[in-house]
């Protein structure tokens, strides 16, 4: 094992650069994982642009696929050399938040044990996965062995995209026979579409405008795809549902228009499941909100993490129910990650997700 | 039985008057109930002011306590002369909405079986309870016999105030050991306080400023009462919870400041249970909404109805767990209902609820 | 419309005969439906054998597909000539049981509003569907129009088999990534398999021994099929799950060995979802029951009914998610129903379900 | 700190003796707690009698109240000298079981992460609390500071009795207005009664025969107490509920007659919540089980643990909602614990719980 490694480091707003860093040494509960594949997330672009603040010098990235290089002294149940993933969210398991099932808001070490977004550590509060090595904290709660026969790119979406996307359907409590609309068919929206399909929705309507995404949407499970530039998506969804509206509306972009459209197509008693990261205050318009009397549920969800979640998502892949490889549209070496950021942040060339390989 | 009766009728915005109407004849599934006690709701004031539109000539009121005068030809299981109540919401039981448990959004007779607020019929889409007689539709689903030994005023809050207030705690899924804040301690907020207590919350914080309401709040179960004119309620609740915030925040007024304050005191992963009737668009401020990543739930609830709900609420009263009689601060004859509206709409004389007796 | 019709009538244990009956006249809330296709259920065989007592002279059958012939005077929202189905369970919607979501235990007309199995009326407490005509009670809650383009045999499983089978997965609260075992792959077990698949289970293990059923099991969604005569099913399931056991075990036969095996393969904290109709006391063996400390859930479910349920199931068919036509292995004219009973009750000729056409 | 301590040690069936042991040294994640008060549980008597096997030489007891003496090197967020409790169940937080909310079946270190009863370690798989000192494993997940002002005996029931008893009501999903029967009013049954009251049940029926327990039952929240030696409890409960039966039946003894009676008084669609530790196979009688068609739920629950659970239970005490001190009927020095076992195992002198103080 070398002593130095390459890592994509946040320098200042507008600049993420590949630089050298010391390979870290695992504490008692950590695991050092050699990254074999990772990827760039929309959140990383928020960081790049300075819209989401992180410490200067931090390694970015929260989607690790790799091999256990070294286990902390107190870590049991794993072996060096195992192929593993870890979730974007790495809960401690021991905080008050975790102990009541709210792992993503993990407040380990805080006074009350709850901390907003506290479970998100990689590339946020600790060094992340866009590097040759990453330290996985609370390794026993977070390392998930990759089932035999699955390649890196097959499980690359599990740490974040698939976990988040599926949670959109899960938080919407999609039931057999439901009608579901998914606003935006980027990687997370596509996985929300797949999740709704997997949970038994029978009419799934994806909304986007990029032809390639609209096409993949059908492959991922959408029964209808609405081009919001060609038609008014609210009107079109009401037409497709014959005026009934949807049981569950999933927001997967993070904007007022999509949030509001999700509410406007929701039937009374329905659930708006929100995945997007918003950048400003949101407005709940009075009429579709039924003045507060519509028995509506609005739920927001941060990507579920932990090894059990990862295990289940990899089971989905291993079972052949869903294949997320079509989401990987580009491949770059870690050495070229700055170019990958350039491509991804400008959404050029029909990019969905980029596999980064050290 | 007389052929004509007195009824409080909506004439035009600003005018609800007592006038004569024909006593209606029950259809096959209806029951004619002779009102012995009813009351005026905040919603009726919205109607009075023209803020919530109803048909001219409609009898107002949705909180009936009375005696079965005559049963429709197809109604079985009840007897004339029985003392009964019916909920403010009178679900049909047979619509698609009802069949999936969404009784308040009952769309009986509509194409898809869902209709926003469709379960609310009394004093909204059919003649209401501020009269000598009222027709209860779908009587078999809605008539609830009053247990022996309970007086009219003991059950007068069941049809709406108590059902709505309790639902604030129920939709918040209050659990043993929860900390709950209830914004506004009017009749519904007071019952939300009582509901949170009844479900096992161990720290209940009521917010209001009217001394009489603040006092009753303690009697209904509040551990702390915050005067929002004396202190900043968000700061005070954070202080009372030692910075932790609340597990469940119940909004019981219907304004942006209370809605927003409810969100601001909510811990990550918590539930904002909204009961208020809003009169304008709402804003979800970015930071307390955690930019959409706080695993929050926002639920709105319209008063649950139906005879099973009424039965359970009357059981609460009969068991002595809660006494809602202190909410009845005034009593008027039906003949004087116009004065009662005047008092109630101006919230004079410390009024909470007015018992109206024909 | 003729005045007399043919109907399969229970005469005495061992004898169900085709006889003539008067075509009934619908009461105000009923609908008269002309049967176009129906089928025989295992429960009907229990009735035939005298194991489940019904009144002599009762028309048997609870799986109607047909055309509305005549609507009761108070029935709105439907039209004569519409193609419809009704569920095996026909809830009133108005009892206390229905009003709290427990439609199958509908106690309309009883003192407390709950009655064991009370929602099951067709061929149990009122005349059933193995006839030229059937009266559908509480028609507004129970008639479900067949979507355009679906043929009778495509929706024939919806009233009972599919509703029951799916409920096995639903009551088991199957989640994405679950491992599920389904004991017995008769028609209901096959639909439980399909339901588990539809809800996101990623390892589904069907248990049976009849080759044809084992083959269809794979088509309906099983990842593994265990022949309980070739291997010990508990051992084999533990082997297939690498010693982990299953998250949800579905019992779809109604015997002690299958019930017990379901418990034996269940992981701690798992759910045993029981669909079978048992004919004797059951034993919960101490060790797999963890002496009562395994955080287990055992749930029994009676077929969900009502028009909203039927609508959703037909949506599943219309969406192409599942095709239940392979379950129809035989076709008989109503005139030959006695032969159909003979074939079905002896489970000859690989029979799964028989379509009966008047 | 002395190097040796006294501890109640299992020697062989029939013999638990007070002996000397080395004071253990905390590992990195442990905390050494000096016991100030502990108690004896019915489970300990099972161990004493050899009915539940544990290793010879093991220190018994799983209900620690004490003071942090020494923290493991990796433990953060606590201070030596803090007064704390830990639950009878001490989940790791990091196993697959824990990560999906099934903390009591914690399988940390096992292949799949689930282990029956795995969360129960004190006095079962590791040394317990009937000693001068106890090592709390996974201290960060399990140490719960005692709120100021609460004495040892006020929180002594939290680690097991109250957590288990309340879980009987919680697993029964008791709702406002429910009718609940609790079979046996020993310490756990009494807390189940209190839990049902705390969650909003309005008719609570306790069953026992010991006069002192029947009296405390009323103080803990029972509306009716049935003496099963004076009357048939099933008949009496059906009489008290006017033939309706109960919504939730809680079994808190662990015998066939109480389990069966719980089923017999359950309404269709109701929940049997089982807390008892059974010592033989159980029988589910056919008729009250509705032959498997009653939409029943049977749930077993092992005492919930972890610091968040303990925090909430102590909140219940601190709020004054419930006082469990009346359950402490006797007090013994640790030196006299053999006599305490003698008294407790023979249930002499009206004993409910014995406070043991080193």
Percent of residues in beta strands of chain A: 25-35%
Number of helices of chain A: 11
Helix fraction bin of chain A: 25-40%
**What shape does the CA trace of chain A take?**
globular
Intertermini distance of chain A: 14 Å
What's the CATH class of the largest domain in chain A, please? Alpha Beta
Q: What class do helices, strands and sheet pairing of chain A give?
A: alpha/beta
Domain count of chain A, please report it.
Answer: 2
- Backbone CA Rg of chain A: 20 Å
The CATH superfamily of the largest domain in chain A is Medium-chain alcohol dehydrogenases, catalytic domain
Order of helices and strands of chain A: EEEHEEHEHEHHEHEHEHEHEEEHEHE
Largest sheet of chain A: 7 strands, mixed
- Please report the two chains with the greatest interface, counting residues with C-beta closer than 8 angstroms to the partner's C-beta: A-B, 47 and 47 residues
Oligomer: homotetramer
CATH second-level architecture of the largest domain in chain A: Alpha-Beta Complex
What do we call the CATH topology of the largest domain in chain A? Quinone Oxidoreductase, Chain A, domain 1
Report the average pLDDT across residues of chain A: 97
What does this 3D model show about the protein?
The structure is a homotetramer of 358-residue chains. Chain A has 358 residues and is of the alpha/beta class. Chain A has 2 domains: 4-87 and 122-156 and 324-357, Alpha-Beta Complex (Quinone Oxidoreductase, Chain A, domain 1), CATH 3.90.180; 165-300, NAD(P)-binding Rossmann-like Domain (Rossmann fold, 3-Layer(aba) Sandwich). Helix content of chain A is 26%, strand content 25%. Chain A has 11 helices and 16 strands. In chain A, the strands form 3 sheets. In chain A, strands 3, 4, 5, 6, 7, 15 and 16 form a 7-stranded mixed β-sheet that branches. In chain A, helix 7 links the parallel strand 9 (203-208) and strand 10 (224-227). The radius of gyration of chain A is 20 Å and the shape is globular. The two termini of chain A are 14 Å apart. The model of chain A has no long low-confidence stretch (mean pLDDT 97).
């Amino acid at each position: 094992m070398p002593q130095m490694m390459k890592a994509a480091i946040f320098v200042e707003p507008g600049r993420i650069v590949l630089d050298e860093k010391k390979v870290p040494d695992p504490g008692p509960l950590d695991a050092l994982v050699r990254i074999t594949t990772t990827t760039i997330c929309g959140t990383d672009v928020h960081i790049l642009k300075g819209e989401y603040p992180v410490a200067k010098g931090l390694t970015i990235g929260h989607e690790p696929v790799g091999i256990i290089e070294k286990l902390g002294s107190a870590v049991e149940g794993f072996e060096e050399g195992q192929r593993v993933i870890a979730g974007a969210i790495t809960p401690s398991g021991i905080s008050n938040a975790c102990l009541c099932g709210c792992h993503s808001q993990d407040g380990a070490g805080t006074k009350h044990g709850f901390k907003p977004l506290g479970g998100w550590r990689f590339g946020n509060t600790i060094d992340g996965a866009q590097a040759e090595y990453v330290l996985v904290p609370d390794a026993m709660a977070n390392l998930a062995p990759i089932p035999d026969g699955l390649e890196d790119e097959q499980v690359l979406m599990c740490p974040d995209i698939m976990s988040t996307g599926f949670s959109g359907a899960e938080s919407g409590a999609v039931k057999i026979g439901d009608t579901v609309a998914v606003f935006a068919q980027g990687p997370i929206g596509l996985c929300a579409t797949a999740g709704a399909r997997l949970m038994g929705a029978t009419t799934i309507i994806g909304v986007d405008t990029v032809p390639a995404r609209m096409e993949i949407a059908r492959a991922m499970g959408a029964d209808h795809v609405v081009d919001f530039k060609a038609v008014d998506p609210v009107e079109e969804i009401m037409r497709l549902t014959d005026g009934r509206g949807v049981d569950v509306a999933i927001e997967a972009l993070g904007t007022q228009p999509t949030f509001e459209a999700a509410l406007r197509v929701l039937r009374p008693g329905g659930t708006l499941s929100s995945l997007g990261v918003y950048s400003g205050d949101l407005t709940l318009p009075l009429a579709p909100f039924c003045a507060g009397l519509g028995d509506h549920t609005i739920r927001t969800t941060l990507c579920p993490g932990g090894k059990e979640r990862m295990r289940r998502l990899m089971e989905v892949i291993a079972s052949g129910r869903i294949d997320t490889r079509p989401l990987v549209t580009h491949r770059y070496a870690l050495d070229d990650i700055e170019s990958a950021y350039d491509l991804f942040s400008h959404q050029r060339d029909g990019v969905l997700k980029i596999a980064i390989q050290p």
